[in-house]
What does this fold into?
Amino acid sequence: MFLRGRHLRLVMVLITGLCSAVVIFLFIQANINISKSHEDIRRIPVHPPEGASGGRVPLQSQPIRTGHPSNDDFMQRQAAIQMQRLHQLQAGCKMALGDADVNRTIRRRALSHFIVDDKYRLVYCHVPKVASTSWIRVFLVLKGIMDDTSIGNQTFIQRGAMSRLRLLHTYDGQDTQYILANYTKFLFVRNPFSRLLSAFKNKLAVNPENDGRIPWYAWIRYVKEYINKSTAGDKDQGENYNISFSDFVKFVGDPKTKSSNQHWNPILHRCFPCHINYTFIGKIESLQTDVDYLFKLAEIEKLVTFPSNEGSSPTNSTNEMALYYQDIPKLDINNIYRKFKRDFNFFGYDNLHDS
It folds into this structure.
């Protein structure tokens, strides 16, 4: 009886141990399955893109992003370019003007071509022959005056619609200081040789389709009188309103002539880059890339598009410089370089003989 009870207790212990082993085994197996399930879940994209038919695109067919340029890459590259341009400008200003405080020399009337948008906190120095009409269109759209940058011809934009924009000289002194200290201030520049050629082709050159030359007849006569005197004879008599590009370059480059005009004056004298702490400097030679960056910087890329050349006066001067300047005397080219020397140095352009 004693042995039988002892055997029974032994059997009960064995059964209990076996049951415990089974329970432990089942628990471990269950956890293994749960871990596998979690691993599978981690491999599924949270928001996989929609396929063409509305279904989910398989994971292996999604594009691999590593190494591809992103918006961040673009912004970083352009920020580095801007840093280099602004550094070159600051170095040029320091070399030319020293450490003197020149801010007080800007007169209010000299700010009459700075366009301001208070809503988007922008200040633009309007420079003729550097995509200026296109920028006026942008500001008109931002202001709500136009619905699209393609509306209206150049005369309407520059003489009519622009009068509805706010200019910096209309603000009082305190507001002007605040705007210049806190808004995004930008200008676009251009190789002075190219800008001079663009002004000639657009305003002074003989062109059957150019009906805008009449207001420029006084300038044409002025150039002709200069050329006639400089050649010691009457080179051209009568009402012949034709001048060559070579004559125009000689006229503008001569330090003795009064050749001041907003369409070819040095940008330094118009936008005061040594007086105003600009946020951004764009170039006509990299126009679209610079515009894209500035639009993103100002957060207006979804509000307006930069206009095409239609509705403005493109002259293709940047691509035709070599053709037009190839027969210009070296003396006249060097005179132009000396007259615009600070524009060349401040904004990173070379003399034609150095390039």
The first helix runs from residue 2 to 42.
